[in-house]
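GH92 family glycosyl hydrolase: structure tokens wanted.
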Amino acid sequence: MDHRLTCSCLAVLLMASLGGLTTARAGQHAADVDPRIGTGGDGHVFPGATVPFGMIQLSPDTAMPDFKHAYKWAAGYQYGDPTIMGFSHTHFSGSGHSDLGDVLVMPIAGDVKLDPGDEKIPGSGYRSRFDHATEVEHPGYYAVTLSDYSVRAELTASRRVGWHRYTFPVGKPAHLLLDLRPSIYDYPGKVLWSNLQVQADGTVTGCRTTRGWAPGRELCFAMRFNQPLRSRELYNRETDVAYKGFKGPGNQPEDANAQNGRALVGVFDFGALTQPLLVKVAISPVSQANAVANLDQDGEGWNFDAQRSAAAAAWNRALSPIDVEGSQTLRTQFYTALYHAMIAPNLSMDVNGEYRGPDHQVHKAEGFDFYSSWSMWDVYRAQQPLLILLHPNHVTAFVRSMIAAQQASPFGMLPVWAYQGLETWCMTGYHAVAIIADAYIKGIRGFDADAAMKAMVSTATYGDYGDLADYMKLGYVPIDKEVEGGSKTQEYAYDDWAIAQMAKALGKHDIYATFEKRASNWRNVWDPNTGFMRARLSTGQFRVPFDPASAGYGDDYTEANAWQYSWYVPQDVAGLITAMGGDQAFTHKLDALFDAKVDPAIFKNVEDITGLIGWYAHGNEPSHHIAYLYDYAGEPWKTQQRLKQIMDNEYGPGPAGLIGNDDLGQMSAWYIFTALGFYPVTPASDEYAIGRPFVPRAAIHLGNGHTFTITASPLDGAHPYVGAVTLNGKPLERVYLKHADILAGGELHFTMQAQPNKHWGTAISARPAAMSAYSR
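Answer:
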């Protein structure tokens, strides 16, 4: 669907900035973030408390619907919902799929109900109504008043601990309900087993095993209170009387100290309180003992405000590598995008170094932190390249984590879409190789490069994955053997190119030759007769009938149609231009893509395809590089034009400010790069295609001590085109930046003008590199 924003477009914000230009408060950018952006529509982000790349995402859940209706609630929260059913400790940020929602708690004043109830019937369960006017959302902090209980709920987070502060109405009994049944993307029988117990010192511990997106996922927790328990009741609400002899419906507590089963609820009673109830919860993917150790080490003391301040400080440090000038509205948009780009991947390791691997076994990290939550199909494009620029030390740990996961994989595979160490096999390609190669090509070290190369080759040659066996044999993925064979062929070819680049840098010539050849396999799904990429059958024939508008599972492409995927050859744009008939034919077809009249209803059964501009779909990742392709064909002014279209239509303030799900920061990272004026079209190269800036001044503070500054003038709606560019005061005639240009520091200045400059950046030598035409 095409959820066009009705809010003010970015161009208007930029024009307004001329009259109210402000200088960003260096090091204090957390104050500029609005976590509400993207919590409505299809943004799929959560408003709650977390720290950069932290293990805890403590956030309100407004609904946990069954799996058939879960898409809009992938983060547990939808801005338009009227009630909150509780606060859970794990969430994805902007994913297109759902799971997690672990360890859900709800403060209750007065009578306790054991089930969430119906949001349409107040008082039918423990969920509560709330008013957005009572919500406060800041990086690392969330607060809301639960109107049915008159309870003020406040949340903050550290790396492994969620911190709660609940202020109850005077004179009413205070309770905390713990529900181990709900899960985002819920369905009957998802909880395979859980246990809950109260230790002698009052610490509440437990684990649960689920068969969700990552089957057999186990998560444990430890919880403590700052007030003594008056009483507690532990319920097994199991209703399947035939299951292991359990009695249903579980309305009476069976044991006040321990309980096992598939439907556990705990109620902890504190009596009438005269001061706030503080709760702290640590989680562990390994064991209850590890959760207790995490709580002991990362959850010392009871100073909630100090923890809130520490979380804000962590976000200020994370956001500090970029200082942006502009209006407050513009800076809010920018720093919220930067915030969303640094929520994942997530720490998935206990204080003793133990973590759960894709083999479901416990492993121990030596000398690095283990991270998971890898939406590889999305984040290799811009989110990880952004972190290479801003947080290279974290990227070292990310790469070491991927290598460790591959070494523990029963299949010898790098992560594809993994979280809490476990693999889901969601999406296509093996894009971890692109992230690793991009990091190495851009100078990231601190990991075993030979082990990385071994992991990359092992992944790219595992024949059972996505029909790689046929791909290696035939040079393409046959559609009669594997769904989405067209796009899989294209993605494998790009990943192969990324492997070749790192092999070349390491002097591994045999590996380089093998994978450089495989990188040309995209040609095997190019159909010159129709002018589109198409899937082939095992016989070598293209599948018929063919409709370039068709999209859906089982088609030739992944979450896209031929109009969108036919541009996906980032490693060989020059070859694609030649295949399409040269520069003019190429740009005319790009124009046709953007200018087409498309009824959004055509994608009603493909919920990820949103944000339409013609056939271009900014709400999903296959389109993200397309606007920059005019640079490669000698018409960079059209890149500038299309970028303005996208920024005007697809981003904005407010809950509907993301046109599609953020996909663990990819949508937001696209915004950051584009606002700065350049974009990594081809990760694993050392080049960025230049677009046009959308901020008047930005300073990138690099880890090597240098600062790279981008300036633009006059920057307003009347001057949308680049007239000239200088790098350190010298004319820059090329439409790309080298990574070394940025690392060296200095100033990139854009002179903007009202009309397109149809001479700048048009020469072959001025264009970004592409494999077939030339190399640098």
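Confidence is low (pLDDT under 50) at residues 1-24, 240-248. The first strand starts at residue 59 and ends at 61.

Cheers.
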